[in-house]
DNA sequence: GTGAAAGCGCTAACAT
DNA sequence: ATGTTAGCGCTTTCAC
């Protein structure tokens, strides 16, 4: 830490500490002349007030936490861009915490967030999370909390989501219209709100397709790539293999392509797929991949905006308000009708 | 911020403030019995010491900054995972700052980092950066700094890099061996160390292929997707279009595929490409993409480890030490010889 | 328009 | 083994 502080500046200018402080904050109590001098000296020394002293005194950290399962994921990294846009604009700092889909890590991260380190928390819950006491505790410590994408309905705070049910429905309907008779749904969690809503949409679409005799099936994909790959091999090597797949998150698409290549299954002839994905390369895959594309940047941006609105004390807390930003179904070759 | 603090605990237990503080730090001065009671009460109230008060007193923030151009990039997001692994283990917090390749943003971020907010900085410089006074200033304020990937050679601090020259050489050599006669190099910056080293490798490989009469050409790709797309269209629609491309960063690959599709240029028959990329989807592209794959996670991890080693005062500063972790050339169909 | 002084919550000498 | 106290660097009342 630098050895020059507000006291040094005060001495150097023959002014009091409080005058320096006020001048640096451009207070109207201070004469233009003094402000000039103070600012100039501060710039000269490359001085900015110690953020920890300032935060301690003000009881405000100018920092928010973003708690997500993974950063190497196009949805989350784009959401971070949205969050960072508004944080930057407001002069806030963003601490990133990664749970790697582990309940234990999530718990220990959240428990460390109630002590004033951050002014607010933006969060997407891990796929393992089925107990919410850590979140309730955070909620009870009165620190503003906003969920995005993977919300937790047990906690009465705002959430930014996309139209997951409808997206699951449209994806499935699209596969049915493309001629699929047996559609499998690749899941990653029984707990996650988004995954189950997408699943409900899928089920509803199948139910609504009376008379088309569609088989349905939910395949649970484990967290590691290798395990997921095995699960998909098992699925595709079986006698009753599907002719349509809904992949509920982007990391599930590559193993499907790989298994198809390995087993000589032709897409879209023998298998059609829709994937929830924001990857920039979906359009140049072989075949190009039909996707449900989420408004990741906008969801992150909106979540941050709502969090910042909660910082204004006078404003009433937006109790459990849900903001829905719709996703797009983008049709490409992986679902082309034969 | 919570209203319960160390004083509350002290009163509640009839002990002094300092006893509480020491007990919470598991000091050997405190009896096992007292520790028990203190820990229990702290847990009951979900109390942890105010990090800002603690940081102010200790002159240590337990926080590091990661300054990168972009997070929605597989290299940087994987590097963050490596950084986070070691930060988590050491009980450190990670603040992310995004420059979006803007020199101005980079400068203002760095200028705000000399005041004790973080104990150290990990950084990859922006492609616009050609003046290093902000970095020198940070260096002069004695806060530990480590570069990874995009290092700045003007500053005498450690850097973690990969074998960029050799990778550029091998990529080019591979294209030559696959029969290319005119190889274009897609650049994103004239300043960036990594880009120019890869470029030198490219030039050297061409120079070393005496007698094969290879044409070379460097195409500069602007920051936006649309502009890059135009640049590549111009390149590929021209009379003397290349039969080989080295794409120096991953975001340059999709537009090449798209332009080829649009103009009916067949890969790898009429155009072969090698791309510096860590995208998980390269193997399922059409055709699958030959890549130089960087050890992103390991580079992030190593950078963090070196930064943490600099925190130990007794250790000598690792003056301008360069750590090189090699990349892999992974051959796929985009460079298949006809 | 400027200054003196209290105190944010904590840690670490230094008592005892 | 426990307690007293100074002070980290800053902001903010309150006085002048």
Descriptive overview:
The structure is a homodimer of 338-residue chains. Chain A is α/β, with parallel strands linked by helices and 338 residues long. Helix content of chain A is 41%, strand content 16%. Chain A has helices at 6-13, 17-24, 32-44, 51-58, 74-89, 103-111, 133-140, 164-177, 193-207, 225-237, 253-263, 296-311, and strands at 63-68, 93-98, 120-123, 145-148, 159-161, 182-187, 215-220, 244-247, 272-276, 290-293, 322-324, 328-330. Chain A has a 6-stranded parallel sheet. A 6-stranded mixed sheet of chain A has the order 7-6-8-9-10-12, sandwiched between helices. In chain A, strand 8 (244-247), helix 11 (253-263) and strand 9 form a beta-alpha-beta unit. The first copy, chain A, is elongated. The termini of chain A are far apart. At the A-B interface, helix 4, helix 5, strand 2 and helix 11 of A face helix 4, helix 5, strand 2 and helix 11 of B.
Termini separation of chain A: 67 Å
| Strand order in the sheet with the most strands of chain A | 2-1-3-4-5-11
Q: What structural class do helix, strand and pairing data of chain A support?
A: alpha/beta
Oligomer: homodimer
Topology:
The structure is a homodimer of 338-residue chains.
Chain A: H1 6-13, H2 17-24, H3 32-44, H4 51-58, E1 63-68, H5 74-89, E2 93-98, H6 103-111, E3 120-123, H7 133-140, E4 145-148, E5 159-161, H8 164-177, E6 182-187, H9 193-207, E7 215-220, H10 225-237, E8 244-247, H11 253-263, E9 272-276, E10 290-293, H12 296-311, E11 322-324, E12 328-330
Parallel strand pairs in A: 1-2, 1-3, 3-4, 4-5, 5-11, 6-7, 6-8, 8-9, 9-10
Antiparallel strand pairs in A: 10-12
Helix pairs in contact in A: 1-2, 5-12, 6-7, 8-9, 10-11
The structure holds a DNA duplex (16 and 16 nucleotides).
């Amino acid at each position: 830490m630098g050895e020059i502080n507000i006291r040094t500046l005060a001495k150097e200018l023959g002014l009091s500490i409080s005058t320096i402080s006020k001048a640096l904050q451009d207070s109207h109590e201070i004469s233009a002349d003094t402000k000039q001098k103070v600012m100039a000296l501060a710039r000269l020394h490359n001085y900015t007030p110690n953020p920890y002293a300032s935060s301690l005194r003000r009881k405000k950290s100018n920092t928010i936490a973003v708690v997500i399962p993974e950063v190497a994921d196009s949805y989350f990294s784009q959401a971070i861009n949205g969050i960072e846009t508004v944080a930057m604009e407001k002069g806030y700092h963003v601490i990133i915490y990664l749970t790697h889909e582990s309940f234990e890590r999530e718990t220990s991260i959240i428990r460390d967030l109630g002590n004033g380190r951050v002014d607010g928390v933006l969060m997407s819950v891990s796929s393992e999370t089925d107990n919410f006491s850590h979140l309730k505790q955070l909620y009870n410590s009165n620190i503003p909390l906003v969920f995005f994408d993977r919300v937790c309905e047990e906690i009465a705070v705002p959430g930014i989501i996309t139209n997951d049910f409808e997206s699951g429905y449209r994806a499935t309907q699209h596969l049915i219209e493309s001629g699929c008779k047996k559609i499998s749904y690749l899941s990653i969690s029984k707990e996650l709100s988004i995954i189950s809503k997408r699943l409900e949409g899928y089920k509803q679409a199948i139910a609504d397709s009376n008379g088309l005799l569609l088989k349905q099936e939910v395949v649970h994909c484990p967290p590691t790539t290798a395990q997921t790959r095995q699960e998909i091999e098992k699925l595709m090597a079986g006698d009753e293999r599907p002719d349509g797949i809904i992949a509920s998150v982007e990391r599930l698409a590559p193993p499907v392509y790989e298994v198809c290549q390995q087993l000589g299954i032709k897409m879209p002839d023998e298998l059609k797929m829709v994937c929830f994905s924001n990857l920039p390369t979906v359009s140049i895959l072989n075949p190009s991949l039909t996707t449900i594309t989420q408004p990741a940047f906008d969801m992150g941006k909106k979540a941050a905006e709502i969090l910042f609105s909660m910082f204004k004390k006078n404003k009433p807390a937006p109790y459990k308000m849900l903001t829905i930003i719709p996703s797009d179904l983008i049709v490409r070759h992986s679902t082309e009708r034969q």
